[in-house]
Every structure is written in C-alpha cells, then in structure tokens.
TrEMBL record, chain A:
MF terms in GO: ATP binding; ATP hydrolysis activity
Organism: Hymenobacter jeollabukensis
Protein name as annotated: ATP-binding cassette domain-containing protein
Domain ABC transporter: 2-239
Entries under SMART domains matching the protein: AAA
A Pfam family recorded for this sequence: ABC_tran
Swiss-Prot/TrEMBL keywords: ATP-binding, Nucleotide-binding, Transport
Alphabetized PANTHER family for the sequence: INTERMEMBRANE PHOSPHOLIPID TRANSPORT SYSTEM ATP-BINDING PROTEIN MLAF, PROTEIN TRIGALACTOSYLDIACYLGLYCEROL 3, CHLOROPLASTIC
Coiled-coil residues: none
From TrEMBL, chain B:
TM stretches of this protein: 35-61, 82-103, 134-159, 180-204, 224-242
Protein's UniProt keywords contain Metal-binding: no
Organism phylogeny: Bacteria, Pseudomonadati, Bacteroidota, Cytophagia, Cytophagales
InterPro entries per record: Permease_MalE (IPR030802)
Record-given protein name: ABC transporter permease
GO terms of molecular function: phospholipid transporter activity
Cellular component GO terms held in the UniProt record: ATP-binding cassette (ABC) transporter complex
UniProt entry keywords in alphabetical sequence: Membrane, Transmembrane, Transmembrane helix
Pfam family, one: MlaE
Length: 268, 243
C-alpha cells in the first residue's frame, strides 16, 4: 500500500500539487485521473522519487520514502517497476537485453540461465516471446508498451507505475494494454498506480480512482461510483467524452448510440 | 557562470557516490573505449597525417637561409607535432566527434526518459552512464594522440621526401636531433586532461538537456564549443605550468 500525505510541489512560483492526500491499495489498479496540467505526472514523479515534494510524505507499506536514508530509498526503488509514457526502452539494447537489464543490475546473484528463464517468462507473459532479438526501433507503439511492462515486472516488482500507458495507441491496443496491466496486478498482487485521462481505462480497470483537479484531489472512489459522482469538475471531465455521455443517456433513458449520435451535443 | 560551474562540480561528485559494481562500470568503460577509440581512428589518422605533411611543406617553404641545415625541418615537425599539434588538434577533432556524440546520446536518453528509467530502477544514472564515458575517453585519447604523433611525423616524411624539399636522411636526422623524452610525457598529460575536459563537459551538457530534439542539437553544439574553449585554456595552463 502506498500512502500519500499532504504532498505539495511547486516549480518556481507555480504551485502544481496543493496538498494531495490519498492511498493506493495493494492488489488493485489505482488510477490517477485528471485533465492535462493537473499535476498527475508530477505526483507520479514525486512517488517514484524523480522529484522531491516540497512538503508532505510518501510511504510504501509503512516505510517512509521521502526524506529517508538513501539506502532505504534505494531498497524501495528496487521494488518499483515503471512503464513510461514513451516506454523509455534503451535504444542500444534489443528487447531481450532491455528486459534482462534490471535483473543484471539489481540481482547480481542471479545466474545467466536464471536470468534467461525469467526474461523468457516475462516476454511470454506479455505476448512477445518471439520478439527478443528485435531492436526498440523495430517495434510498434503497442509492442514497446508490452516490452516496457515486461521490463517493469522482470525483477518481481511490488509496485507498478504506469504513466499514461494508452497514449499514442489505437483503442483496441489500448484495451489490450489495460487488460494486461489489470491481469498482472491481480496475478502478482502488485500495487499498481496508473496515470491516465482515458475514460475507457477508468471503466475497464479502475479498481480505485483518484481524481485530481488543479493540483488537488477532488474525488476518489471506484469505477462503479464515478459515473454518479456529484463533483461538478469531475462530471464535466467525464462527460466531455461523447461516448460516456451517450452511454449514460442510454442507461438512464434507453435508446441507441446511433440515435444519440444524430443529436447535437447537450450538457448532462 | 559560477552557478553553472557549481552544478558541474556537483554533477561530477554525483558520479562518485552510490556507485554501481566495479565489474559493471569496467565493462561499460571498455565498451565506451572501443566506441570512442575505434570510431575515431580514421578521422584522427587523416587529420594528423595531413597536418604533418602541411607542417613539413610550409617549414621547408619558409626555410630559405642556406646556413640552416635541411634537417631542421624534421626537427621542427617533430617538436610541433609532439608538443602541440598531436595532442591539441587531435583533442579538438575529438571534441567535435566524441563530444557531440556524448552530448547527443545523453541528451536523447534524457528527453526519452531513459535516464529517468535508470533512476527509477535505483541505478545511479550519472555513475552508470557518465563515468564510463569519461574513463573510456581518458584511456583512448592518449592512444589516439600517440597514433597522431606517429602519423604526423610519417606524413611530414612523405611530404618532405616526395616533394624533394629534403632527403630522407636529412629528415630522419632532424627527427632524432636533441630529442627530449619529457615532451612525450607532457603531450600524454595534455591528452589525459583534454580527454577529461571533453567528456565531462559534453556529458554535463547532454545529461541536463531539457526539451526536445531541438534542444538535443543545441546541447551538442554547446558541448563542442565549450569543450574546445576548455581545451585551449587548458593547453595554455599546462604549457605555462609544466614546461
């Protein structure tokens, strides 16, 4: 479980996070939802230690991460897997070497054969067992995300962070990536935190959702609760999607998507 | 200016704390040394051979006094090559080639979040990425400078004898005249210092790239410019203090 308590972060005079407090539970897909520029990625970078919060604390399963000793922070970091927005695969290594890299660096006691088995297992798990020899430049966007996930889970991570895993992907591939993250989270009982502004992800895999607006947490709950949330900013965000708006109307009034598509958009 | 220098020193310090295993760094250093060294052999060879040839021809052109022996040409080529041309010009050439490569490579890694990926894994990215590049440069620059010395003197020999400016015997006589071994040591000290300056400055510029592809290009350009200025300042300081 990851606990965020009263985290503030500013860049110069511009406050980005204004006292965010929330909890991300183990074995669940925790989504941080919000529009562009609301501080989602900054919050993620604070959690994984790429940025230092000005005020506030972040705790991983009871161990304080912020302002703790370097050794303790390093130990926690070794349990973190992260899928970056642009995958961040190492250009100079092929797929196999990319997935093997954290094992080589973090588990020096592991034999070469054990490493190979683990890499093959992870690549198989994400459906890329035949792509080991390919270079990152030869992969599609979806394949890069899969390799990123394989690299993240290779060292048996306890915490998985995904920064907009669907960005740049078509809807079908997005759903596959979402499903993969969801399955891995529940299969290995990982604490997963996903930064997104994709409502499809919310509906598909949002076990627990935190909504950020202008650097503050305005709402949190489950995917079943979000459509009935009474926070105006959240409602505006959710129903800015025509698809969600239509789905909501069908749920409330009946009818079909085609009928609604013909109508001019109107506020909920 | 002072702030940038302070950041540069902190950057160098960050390479030396929280270090990765010696074996990992050593293997990376060898990889970098091969990349820097092998890839630079051709350009260093061409530049140094022609510099030696041109130096020889121009000295011969200016040396019109019949009282000065022709062997002086060989002597002057040797002195200029060993003391200045081989270490300094080779390092300036390498600043353009290796420096831009280091800055561009690290800059690209920065903007594509590869450096962040290393940090999230708990790996000291400056130690893992930058230290091997600096050590690789320190290993290969002196070797390339020795190669440049040899080829420059050979270039002078070929230019001098083929153009008929002097005989082979006169050139070799000049090359062997009043040789001071310390000059070789001085040249190698210079090459080590220049290797450090080029690789560290370029790595600093690349590592802290902010923005996109345009900024990576700007980082490379700045890295080369600053490296060359640093080489020239270092050249003067070393000549003043060690000669």
């Amino acid at each position: 479980m990851i606990e965020i308590h009263n985290v503030h972060k500013s860049f110069g005079d511009a406050p980005i996070l204004k006292g965010v407090t929330c909890t991300f539970e183990t074995g669940k897909c925790n989504l941080v939802l919000g529009g562009s520029g609301t501080g989602k990625s900054v919050l993620l970078k604070c959690i994984v230690g790429l940025l230092k919060p000005d005020i506030g604390s972040i705790t991983f399963d009871g161990t304080i991460f912020t302002n703790n000793k370097v050794e303790i922070r390093q130990e926690i970091r070794k349990q973190i897997g992260m899928l970056f927005q642009a995958s961040a695969l190492f250009d100079s290594m092929n797929v196999f070497e990319n997935v093997e890299f954290p094992l080589k660096m973090l588990t020096p006691d592991m034999s070469r054969a054990e490493r190979r088995d683990r890499v093959e297992f992870c690549l198989k798990r994400v459906g890329l067992e035949a792509a080991g020899n390919k270079m990152p430049s030869e992969l599609s966007g979806g394949m890069k995300k899969r390799v990123g996930i394989a690299r993240a889970i290779a060292p048996n991570c306890t915490y998985l962070f995904c920064d907009e895993p669907n960005s740049g992907l078509d809807p079908l591939t997005s759903i596959k990536i979402d499903e993969l993250i969801y399955e891995i989270t529940h299969e290995y009982n990982i604490t997963t935190v996903i930064i997104t502004h994709d409502m499809n992800s919310v509906v598909e895999i949002g076990d627990h959702i935190v909504y950020l607006h202008k650097g503050q947490k305005l709402w949190d709950g489950t995917k079943d609760e979000i459509l009935n949330a009474q926070v105006p900013e959240l409602k505006e965000f959710i129903f800015s999607s025509s698809l969600v708006r239509a789905a909501k109307r069908i749920e409330m009034e009946g009818g079909s998507l085609e009928e609604i598509r013909q109508e001019p958009s109107k506020d909920i | 200016m002072v702030k940038v220098f302070g950041q540069f020193l902190l950057f160098l310090q960050s390479m030396l704390v929280r270090t990765e295993r010696v074996k990992v760094i050593w293997n990376r250093t060898l990889d970098e040394a091969v990349l820097i060294g092998i890839d630079s052999i051709l350009i260093v060879s061409i530049v140094s051979a022609f510099i030696g040839a041109v130096t020889c021809v121009q000295i011969a052109y200016n040396l019109i006094n019949p009282l000065i022996p022709k062997s002086t040409i060989g002597y002057m080529v040797r002195e200029m090559t060993i003391l200045e041309l081989a270490p300094t010009i080779t390092s300036i050439v390498l600043a353009g080639k290796v420096g831009s490569s280091i800055a561009g490579g690290l800059g690209t890694m920065r903007i594509t979040e590869q450096i962040d990926a290393l940090e999230v894994m708990g790996i000291n990215s400056s130690n893992y990425l930058v230290l091997p590049r600096i050590l690789g440069s320190i290993i290969t620059f002196p070797l390339l400078v020795i190669l440049a010395m040899v080829l420059s003197i050979l270039g002078g020999y070929l230019a001098g004898t083929l153009s008929g400016a002097m005989t082979a015997q006169e050139y070799v006589e000049g090359i062997r005249d009043t040789f001071i071994p310390y000059n070789i040591v001085f040249a190698l000290i210079k090459s080590v210092v220049f290797a450090f300056l080029v690789s560290a400055i370029s790595a600093y510029r690349g590592y802290f790239t902010v923005g996109g592809a345009l900024e990576v290009g700007a980082s490379s350009t700045t890295a080369v410019t600053h490296s060359i200025i640093a080489i020239l300042i270092g050249d003067f300081v070393l000549a003043y203090t060690l000669l």
